[in-house]
Amino acid sequence: MGERGNGSDSGGTGRDVSAALKDQFGRSIEYLRISVTDRCNFRCLYCMPAEGLPWLPKTEILSYEEIGAVIAQLAPLGLRRVRITGGEPTIRPNLEELVRLLRSVPEIDDIALSTNGAKLPALAAPLRAAGLDRINMSADSLRPDRIAAIARRNLAFDPVEAALAADRVGLAPIKINVVVMRGINDDEIEDFARLTIAHPWHVRFIELMPVGEMSGLTWQHVVPSDEVLSRIGALAGLTPDGGPPRGNGPAKYYKLDGARGTVGVITPMTHTYCASCNRVRLTADGRLRTCLFGDHEVMLRDALRAGLPLEPLFRDALANKPKEHALLQMKVGGLRALSQVGG
């Protein structure tokens, strides 16, 4: 599927997007992250307590058909890109059914998946066949013992094999997200960067966000992205890339000399990117969350199940989307864990 342009149509499809949805600060909102479950088969140090969380009752979670109905109502208003998240979305059965539903909405140009990659070797092909465009995969180590220690689960997971499985079926670009934690995995920065030399992958280094019940990880564990880039630059020449790979995110990209892929940095702690935010989030139980670390939410599920239109609720939500997050003040809008909203 082609990327959208910035003009009056979406890359030659003829759809008028001049009236795209905007929030109170004039930011165009065309990207929705859809959490399909609050559960996960990992318990990553920075994402979920070791003991898990009180899981949502099944009756409160949106069905695939209900998610499809939400997208069908919002897409004509200007929604163009969606990302399936969790928890870990691939543990929800028959995920390809949701992908097919989303692919059937004419206005949706791009369908992505965020995953820990553990199930990618088995699911990459059916998800691609259903219409998935690309993946973002979390991988916080390349060492089996450390993967198990960070995830607090041992699933014999090999992130390189998972990325190769996605690569083989044409899920591209492949983005690998590394949450850098000082004293835990920061000694692997260079190893991850080297992956971009041999593969056309995009490795993004994310500054740790110590939130909620993950307060055991603090500012002392944050590795500033300037330090990450300095260390990578010592490997070879490192220059800003001409343009980001296909996607919606806030990463800034660079390329090592002779590399097939890129390295990127995402900087929620040292250089906020709220001014260009183009996204909102749909939680697994049908709440529209307008800022990852804010506390403003609008319940869509109840209106949907009552047969009421969602457009007024959606526009009201955007009218109240905050200007920026308060993460630096350690205010996280009642979040206990990032897994609750799909990151």
Please tell me about this protein's structure:
- By secondary structure, the chain is α/β, with parallel strands linked by helices.
- It has one domain: TIM Barrel.
- Helix content is 24%, strand content 17%.
- The protein has helices at residues 64-74, 95-103, 120-130, 144-151, 159-168, 189-198, 225-233, 301-305, 311-319; strands at residues 31-35, 81-85, 110-115, 134-138, 174-180, 202-207, 238-240, 252-256, 262-266, 279-282, 287-289, 297-299.
- It has a twelve-stranded mixed beta sheet with strand order 7-8-9-6-5-4-3-2-1-10-11-12.
- Strand 2 (81-85), helix 2 and strand 3 (110-115) form a beta-alpha-beta unit.
- Helix 1 (64-74) runs parallel beside helix 2 (95-103), helix 2 (95-103) packs parallel to helix 3 and helix 3 (120-130) packs parallel to helix 5 (159-168).
- The protein is globular, with a radius of gyration of 19 Å.
- Residues 1-19 and 328-333 have low confidence and may be disordered.
Keywords:
343 residues; alpha/beta; TIM Barrel; twelve-stranded mixed β-sheet; globular; disordered N terminus
